[in-house]
Amino acid sequence: MTDKIKEVWLGPGKKDGYIRDFKPENDGLHIEMSKRGNFEWWYFDARLDNGYMAVGFFRAKHERTGKTGVEITIYKPNGEKIQKIFDYEHSDLVAIKENANVQIGKNYIEVDYSNEKAPTYEIYLDEGDIGIHLVYKPKLRGWMPGEGFTEFGTLGQFGWAVAIPRADVEGTIKVDNNEIIVKGIGYHDHNWITFNLVRVVDYWHWGRVYSDNFTIVYAYIKCNKKMDNYPISILMIAKGDEIIHSTGEFEFIEEGFTYNEKAGNKYTNSLTFKLSDSQSISLNVKSIIDADNLLFELSPLFRFLAKNLLRIKPGYFRLKSEYLIDYIHDGERFKEKGDTLHEMVIVK
């Protein structure tokens, strides 16, 4: 335990006894753009029925570079990755605190709030020969763990708001300047940080599971010695369109680590969320979808300083795993398995 970190659960204990309503302002701008050392971004992804996967970022301030911009990544069915990052001036950002309507250059997020509990999101990202234009129709209401942020002592806070845990998506993606009509399943969340995570975090895991009956969203953040190696554990479980668990009260088990040369780091082979002796969710890695050394995002000078002075070697993994769900709800035991994608980010 540590008194340096405050997790803002609604209680009792490290869990939410009730799920508060998700408000438009929860997905609005949180930081002051004029202040140094704060960061914020809106993230969207979609697993598409034709085998493609699309990922889009709208960044008020990039979590490593501090730049305003957008990022588009498209994975082809054959595993080929196309990734492009486009920087803008801070003055090119149009965003407000009241809702998630955002514009960066000609790229935008537009939200229809006529259905307050399940607003429809339209995202438009178009930069030359690559683009994403999708409409997200939620299957599950927005959610935050507790108050939606964690306090890191006097340093500041790390916020996480999951506006769309699960949605039907449809629209188009543009690959090599060719538009493709698509549909599939999508996700959207939103993060803000008022300090540099490198100072206190070693690594984190994040992902979702979409089964026939359940939607599961999780995060596990392993802090470093400055924060007494404190682990932040977050798990949301929904059955159908009802969120039934929002909790940090479970055992998180990591097993087996494998080194990857491209990322310059090790990834975990198996993750288990143990809710009780008879209930668990596990992920067993089958393949690496993506691996990167995150120093490439920095300027040559900062890359040199990070590697040689700060002695950090940030890495990123997007992994494909088999999930196994063994869970009891209303007296009925559910056992389900399938494939899912999840991430591991090393920041130390």
Summarize it.
With 348 residues, the protein is an all-beta fold. Helices cover 3% and strands 60% of the residues.
What does this structure look like?
With about 350 residues, this protein is mainly beta. The chain has 2 domains: about 20-195, AttH-like fold (Beta Barrel), CATH 2.40.370; about 195-348, AttH-like domain (AttH-like fold), CATH 2.40.370. It has 1 helix and 22 strands. Strands 1, 2, 3, 4, 5, 6, 7, 8, 9, 10, 11, 12 and 13 form a 13-stranded antiparallel β-sheet that branches. The protein has a 9-stranded antiparallel β-sheet with strand order 17-16-15-14-22-21-20-19-18, with no helix packed on it. Strand 11 and strand 12 form a beta hairpin. The radius of gyration is 19 Å and the shape is globular. The protein starts with a strand and ends with a strand. Residues about 295-310 have low confidence and may be disordered.
Q: How do the strands and helices of this protein lay out in sequence?
A:
Blueprint: E1 5-7, E2 39-48, E3 53-61, E4 68-75, E5 81-88, E6 93-94, E7 102-104, E8 107-112, E9 120-127, E10 130-138, E11 149-152, E12 156-175, E13 178-193, E14 201-210, E15 214-223, E16 231-239, E17 242-247, E18 251-260, E19 265-276, E20 279-293, H1 300-308, E21 315-329, E22 332-346
Antiparallel strand pairs: 1-11, 2-3, 2-13, 3-4, 4-5, 6-7, 7-8, 8-9, 9-10, 10-12, 11-12, 12-13, 14-15, 14-22, 15-16, 16-17, 18-19, 19-20, 20-21, 21-22
